[in-house]
Design goal:
The chain is α/β, with parallel strands linked by helices. It has one domain: Aldolase class I (TIM Barrel, Alpha-Beta Barrel), CATH 3.20.20. The chain is 39% helix and 14% strand. The chain is built from 11 helices and 10 strands. It has helices at 4-11, 15-29, 73-85, 105-117, 133-142, 155-161, 167-180, 196-207, 237-250, 267-276, 295-305; strands at residues 34-44, 90-95, 123-127, 146-148, 183-185, 188-190, 215-220, 255-258, 280-282, 308-309. Strands 1, 2, 3, 4, 5, 6, 7, 8, 9 and 10 form a 10-stranded parallel sheet that branches. Helix 8 links the parallel strand 6 (188-190) and strand 7 (215-220). It is globular, with a radius of gyration of 18 Å. The termini are far apart. The structure holds S-adenosylmethionine (SAM), 6-(5-methyl-2-OXO-imidazolidin-4-yl)-hexanoic acid and iron/sulfur cluster.
């Protein structure tokens, strides 16, 4: 398990040496030239009780996001089918909640939606906030492949960004997800006023997970009007590339998702992130509330780079209910 000192030594090498190493590790662990395409859907938008300083969905800030109701299974299903038809191999549903509780009608509704979406052949990911063992077990039984719950930044910087829950609360939820046997999708956001060392501390915590995270979303802050971080400057591209390359070296089997903020990056910058080891993206013109590149721009970028979509469950246990393997659209 690499410690901060080791991570610093890897991260601060001359960039081309770092990239040569991360590329070698990538080639040893991943079939070349594959990119996972995940589609994101906000099934419950806005009105959240929490005060995460980056988030347009917090009810505490005056943002452009209008709070909505939880989408029904009938509303979600056609969108999930469309995502599968356009080539997405993972479908991620997000809710602007502090967390969920077993027995709550809204949680039952999410479980119903997961049961239906999981029949479509895509990996199913949800991000609903805090969970305990009972909720995690039910999500797994309903067909969730992976649970997304980010630590977002270092333990030291976390309290400057969020006051309504703690870093330890995040770790407790991740523990429940692991005990239930779901894959953990956990990463963070760059550009919250943290230092490069804070980012490596975050990575040190991710490396301490047992088992290691199945996927690591690396978000760049999308500055959202009305939030305390609305006027934050974008981070330097080489800092992003260095963090991706370091993550690839120390978590060789994790999917690294170049997540929020891609719409602010050039095609060349994205290509460099993919070269460094990012092998997953959100696909579709909207994240939860913020913009993402248009699907046809992404298809053109993948084509120009000679990358192809990764098949679902290519490195996860495939549910028995899903045989045989569906053809990719
Ligand atoms: N409420 C749940 C939670 O906080 O875990 C799930 C939804 S929350 C929006 C999921 C993740 O989106 C956050 O942990 C954060 O990493 C990311 N996120 C939210 N707003 C963002 C922004 N403006 N820029 C980049 N990433 C953001
Ligand atoms: C993650 O790490 N990034 C996604 C997903 N997990 C849920 C969310 C990005 C949100 C970007 C801001 C927005 O759309 O409001
Ligand atoms: Fe709520 Fe999640 Fe946004 Fe925090 S990040 S305000 S918990 S939706």
């Amino acid at each position: 398990m690499p410690k901060l000192e080791t991570l610093e030594a890897i991260y601060r090498r001359p960039l081309f040496d770092l990239l040569a190493d991360s590329r070698r590790v990538h080639a040893d662990h991943w079939r070349d030239n594959e990119m996972q395409l995940c589609t994101l859907l906000s099934v419950k938008t806005g009105g959240c009780s929490e005060d995460c300083g980056y988030c347009a969905q917090s009810a505490r800030y005056n943002t452009d996001v209008k709070a909505g109701k939880l989408m029904t299974t009938d509303e979600v299903l056609p969108i999930a089918k469309q995502a599968a038809a356009s080539g997405a191999t993972r479908f991620c549903m997000g809710a602007a909640w502090k967390g969920v509780r077993d027995g709550d009608a809204k949680f039952d509704q999410v479980l119903d939606t997961v049961r239906e979406v999981s029949k479509l052949g895509m990996e199913v990911c949800v991000t609903l906030g805090q969970l305990g063992d009972a909720e995690a077990q039910k999500l797994r039984e309903a067909g969730v492949t992976a649970y997304n719950h980010n630590i977002d930044t270092s333990p030291e910087h976390y309290a400057s960004i969020v006051s309504t829950h703690t870093f330890q609360d995040r770790l407790n939820t991740i523990g429940a997800v692991q005990r239930a046997g779901m894959a953990v999708c956990c990463g963070g956001i760059l550009g919250l006023g943290e230092t490069e060392t804070d980012r490596l501390r975050m990575l040190e915590v991710l490396c301490s997970f047992d088992p290691p995270p199945e996927s690591v979303p690396i978000n760049c802050l999308m500055p959202m009007a009305g939030t305390p971080l609305a006027n934050t400057k974008p981070i330097d591209i080489f800092e992003l590339v260095r963090l991706i390359a370091t993550t690839r070296i120390v978590l060789p089997k994790a999917k690294i998702r170049l997540s929020a903020g891609r719409s602010l990056l050039s095609r060349e910058a994205q290509a460099l992130c993919f070269f460094a080891g990012a092998n997953s993206i959100f696909y579709g013109e909207k994240l939860l509330t913020a913009p993402n590149p248009e699907a046809d721009e992404d298809i053109a970028l993948l084509r120009d780079l000679g990358l192809s979509p990764q098949a679902p469950y290519s490195d996860l246990p495939r549910p028995e209910s899903l045989d045989p393997q569906p053809a990719l659209a």
